[in-house]
Design a protein that fits this description.
single chain; 567 residues; mainly beta; Immunoglobulin-like; six-stranded mixed β-sheet; 7 helices; binds CU-O-CU linkage
């Protein structure tokens, strides 16, 4: 640890002092330096300059316990501005450490630095961290694993070993160029060149055999795999040849153990599974490939990434590993069956009565091309996305949270509609093209501190329908139900799980379908709500909640840290 740096930062000492004062016994403060820098990375016989943390791809794993605090000093040595987001961490009263660019902070300028300080409060399981501006998160991401408190255990028999498996996507070109071109031409971004597991495509791709990720097991033992979908565009089916998986957690909440041959993970989500090594000693592929919920005619990465589960003392001869059978690319029924299997481990008290009944549409749109220009989206348009017909525009000079905290006007408005401005047959086949073009705006929805919110997210079939993994910052929510078609309050309320719904931070809103979530607005600040498919986010599939302060300091956003970056 550099002594000069420490002594020059009085806010750090203050933080440490508070941490020592308030940390539970045994809780720890984890300090890390994250240096953002470009290094050459070789994949698929091809080397390119890649933005990383500390030269690692994927980035370093953060391993902490529930109750611990983190102090992460980010030093930006890359030529791009950047922010980091701690996906799923609640950041109570502490939006300053959340990270989405222009939502809670201005980006860390090239050459600049910023220290993220936050604690883990009543959360455990698998989360992750990633860059949160432009498409830097394609390579700037890593696992954030929260173990139970010291002397506490998992609600299942302790596994022999644990492995984070980060699913991702690799482009031979710079991902920033991929999204820049897409936004310029209006076309969908070019699909990735490979899917990856822990940064490696695996041996079904060229030049990738040697580096394939390997998971060692001994016959008879049970291991825990922590899957994280860090891919930019692709929902993924995952299977292990000849082995079932028992799902025990999703996002950072335990689930009722549920045994399945296939797991579906959308970008942003995590899934923890136990695998019992009960097959003949040998080598078995862990394989992942796309779930393409939209039309199969839309280009997508249809390759298969693999890691290998290798038994100790396997029979010599090394027969090639066995591949699992994965569902067809468009197997929406398999997705529905999997998501129906996910239930919270414990019965929970469902927050009620509901103070805010919200209904947001989520979907695609098309903008007409500027006169005299040529656009390469469908029928010469530009692709866009929206929620309740508003396509979200980030501010420039100041973050939303800074503007809200210091009362700066003109940065956003608080009139995001509670329900769609125009009601229509959202999932119908013949939606009038007059509904295709959303309005670009920076609208927030205000929530009173402590209000009980029920949010219906309704997919639309504008241009086409896809599943949208919807993520909310600063919160975990109960997923009461998901379903197909248009949500019908009378009919579908009967489908709500009011006993043991899963608690998540990212919910897949099914293709031509809906999802209903509930939460208590107990975390003041500005919290981003968006689709975790990054093309959709780049096109505006987002909004933000402005959760007002409650009474007193313990219900109010803390003052901003002194080193908060300036735009
Ligand atoms: Cu995982 Cu707004 O992000």
């Amino acid at each position: 640890m550099e002594i000069d740096n420490l002594s020059s930062s009085s806010s750090f000492w203050l933080f440490l002092w508070f941490s020592v004062l308030f940390l539970a016994p045994n809780a720890e403060v984890h300090q890390h330096d994250f240096v953002i820098k470009a290094v050459p990375v070789k994949r698929l016989c091809h080397t390119r300059s890649t933005i990383t943390v500390n030269g690692q791809f994927p980035g370093p794993t953060l391993l902490v316990r529930n109750g611990d605090s983190l102090v992460i000093r980010v030093v930006n040595q890359a030529k791009y501005n950047i922010t980091l987001h701690w996906h799923g961490i609640r950041q109570l009263r502490n939006g300053w450490a959340d990270g989405p660019a222009y939502v809670t902070q201005c980006p860390i300028q090239a050459g600049g630095s910023y220290t993220y300080r936050f604690s883990v409060e009543d959360q455990e399981g698998t989360l992750w961290w990633h860059a949160h501006n432009s498409w830097l998160r394609a390579t700037v991401h890593g696992a954030l694993i929260i173990l139970p408190k010291l002397h506490c255990s998992y609600p299942f028999a302790p596994p022999k070993c644990e492995f984070p498996l980060i699913l991702g996507e690799w482009w031979n070109a710079n991902p920033l160029d991929i999204i820049r071109r897409a936004l310029k031409t209006g076309a969908a971004p070019q699909p990735s060149d490979s899917l990856t597991i822990n940064g490696q495509p695996g041996d079904l791709y060229k030049c990738s055999t040697k580096e394939t990720t390997v998971i060692p097991v001994a016959a008879g033992e049970t291991i825990l795999l922590r899957f994280i979908n860090a891919a930019m565009l692709t929902e993924l089916f995952v299977s292990v040849a000849d082995h079932n998986m028992t799902v025990v957690a999703a996002d950072s909440s335990y689930t009722k153990p549920f045994t399945t041959s296939v797991v579906l993970i959308a970008p942003g989500q995590t899934t923890d599974v136990l695998i019992h090594a009960n097959r003949p000693a040998g080598r078995y592929y862990i394989a992942a490939r796309a779930y393409q919920s939209g039309s199969l005619n839309t280009p997508f990465d249809n390759t298969t990434t693999t890691a290998i589960l290798i038994y100790e003392n396997q029979t010599p001869g090394h027969s090639p590993p066995k591949l699992p059978v994965l569902p067809p690319y468009n197997d929406t029924a398999a997705v529905a069956a999997f998501s129906a299997g996910i239930k919270g481990l414990y019965a929970v008290k469902i927050p009620a009565p509901v103070d805010e009944h919200l209904f947001f549409t989520v979907g695609l749109g098309l903008i007409s091309c500027q006169q005299g220009k040529t656009c390469s989206g469908p029928n010469g348009t530009l692709f866009t996305t929206s929620m309740n017909n508003y396509s979200f525009v980030l501010p420039k000079g100041l973050s939303l949270l800074q503007a809200a905290q210091s009362g700066v006007r003109g940065v956003f408005t608080t009139d995001f509609p509670a329900s769609p401005p125009v009601k229509f047959d959202y999932t119908g086949d013949n939606i009038s093209t007059s509904l295709y073009q959303p309005v670009r705006a920076t609208k927030l929805y205000p929530l009173k501190y402590g209000s009980v919110v029920q949010l219906v997210m309704q997919g639309t079939n504008i241009y086409m329908s896809e599943e949208h993994p919807m993520h909310i910052h600063g919160y975990e929510f109960l997923v009461l139900a998901t379903g197909r078609g248009n949500f019908d309050a009378k009919r579908d309320a009967a489908k709500f799980n009011l006993v043991d719904p899963p608690r998540r931070n990212t919910v897949g809103v099914p293709v031509k379908g809906w999802g209903v979530i509930r939460f208590v607005a107990d975390n003041p600040g500005v919290w981003f709500v968006h689709c975790h498919i990054d093309s959709h986010l780049s096109w505006g599939l987002a909004m933000a909640f402005l959760v007002e302060n409650g009474a007193g300091e313990l219900q109010s956003t803390a003052p901003p840290p002194l080193d908060l970056p300036k735009c």
